[in-house]
Structures are given as structure tokens and as C-alpha cells.
Amino acid sequence: MKVKTILVSQPEPKVENSPYFDLIDRQKVKIDFRPFIHVEGVSSKDVRGQKIDLTKYTAIILTSRNAVDHFFRIAEELRFKVPDTMKYFCQSEAVAYYLQKYVVYRKRKIYVGKSTFTELSPLIKKYKNEAFLLPSSDKLKPEAPMVLNDLGVNWKQATFYRTVISDLSDLRDVYYDILVFFSPSGIKSLLENFPDFEQNETRIAVFGNTTIKAATESGLRVDIKAPTPETPSMTMALEKYIKEVNGKK
């Protein structure tokens, strides 16, 4: 069956040069964007309940923009003035760049990894005498605790925000040729919103091994997988599939 409509379970890209928009132009398909999950901050009372005292930490490990937002939100709610001496360890350049929303970049001690948490570990190891706080969601990937425990540093994880399933009830009678997922939480959201979901001719596209595992364990047929050596991005995987079933353009 040809592909005409695609639903991506993420917010619409804010940049004009997104590869999704290029895909729409080249393949003449309709792509809608809808987050299947969203983030909600926990209260400062909940953070205190986790026995977190922000004055005890000399370094913050930031793995995402959400972590940045919610760390500074909690600090403000607790009336904690973040000291100029605080060290920030950012998992990627994008996170470090986003940190400028809250701190004067050139005046702070900011250390930046390449992409994965493991790639950040040599920088953390250099400062292993610091007291590290890892503000995160309730869905922390196992890589971070493993790396930090292996380094033997003084660290603590705290849940500053939660991943929550979005209400998709308005999509009940809307059908797409392809549904695109990037996390096990997205798969969970689909099945909790639509417990009677039948895949039939709907194609499922997934990004990452954990998402593939979640989809197959939920009884879904995975038709499009990324990343692969041939298609390292989701848009490339989608375009390859569309060309195969629609005819090359």
C-alpha cells in the first residue's frame, strides 16, 4: 500500500530546515506531529521528600533541556541561589547551549560531552572529588547510573520531572499510513490511549533498539527501523520505505 499520511509522535520541529519538511516536499506526503508523551515537573516538596539538599552539591549533571529547565525551576522554588562556583556537566553541545538561558556562559564552569553519557565520563572523572547531582525524569536510562557507579564518584539522582502519557482521544477516528515512535513510552501511550488498537495495514516506524523491543513485545509489527548503517536517521528510513512502496521520486 502506498504511503500518503504519517504521524510522528513528537512535537513539530521549530526549525525551517527540518528534514521532515524536506521529506514532505520531495515525496508529497502529509506529515502530522503530535507528542504521545509530555513532561510534567514534580513539586519542590516532592524533591525535598527525596532528601535532596541543593546546598550539598558542587556539580550538576545535565542530560537534556528538560533537566536544565527543571533544575533551575526547583532551585527558584526552594529559594536556592545557585552559586557561581557550580560546575555543569552537559551531555551534549545542545544541552550546554540551552544552559545559556539561565547562566552567563563565559563566567561559568561548563564541561561538554559529545553525545552519549559514556562520552561525558572522562570529564566527570577529572573532577571526581565533586558532589554530583543528576536531576532527571522518572525514566532515567540505565547508562547514567552504570557510568557514575563505575567511576566511583559521589553522586545522587533525583526525579525533578516525570514523563506522562498524553491524551490522544481526539485521534480515535483518525488513521495514518505510518506511525513513528522514538521511545518505549510512545508505544505505551498508543496502547493505553487505544487498548483496542489493531495494526492491520498501518505501518510502524521505530527509532532505537529499546523502542523496537517495546513495540514487538506489545505485539506490534515493526515495518521501518532506524538507525541502520544505510539509514542513520528516521527521515532517511522513512524516505527509503516511501520510495519502495510509492515508486521512486
TrEMBL record:
Top-level taxon of the source organism: Bacteria
GO cellular component annotations of the record: cytosol
Entry's Gene Ontology BP terms: uroporphyrinogen III biosynthetic process
Domain Tetrapyrrole biosynthesis uroporphyrinogen III synthase, first and last residues per copy: 28-235
Molecular function GO terms recorded: uroporphyrinogen-III synthase activity
Short name of any one Pfam family annotated for the protein: HEM4
Residue spans crossing the bilayer: none
Protein name in UniProt: Uroporphyrinogen-III synthase
Protein's organism: Halomarinibacterium sedimenti
High-level lineage: Bacteria, Pseudomonadati, Bacteroidota, Flavobacteriia, Flavobacteriales
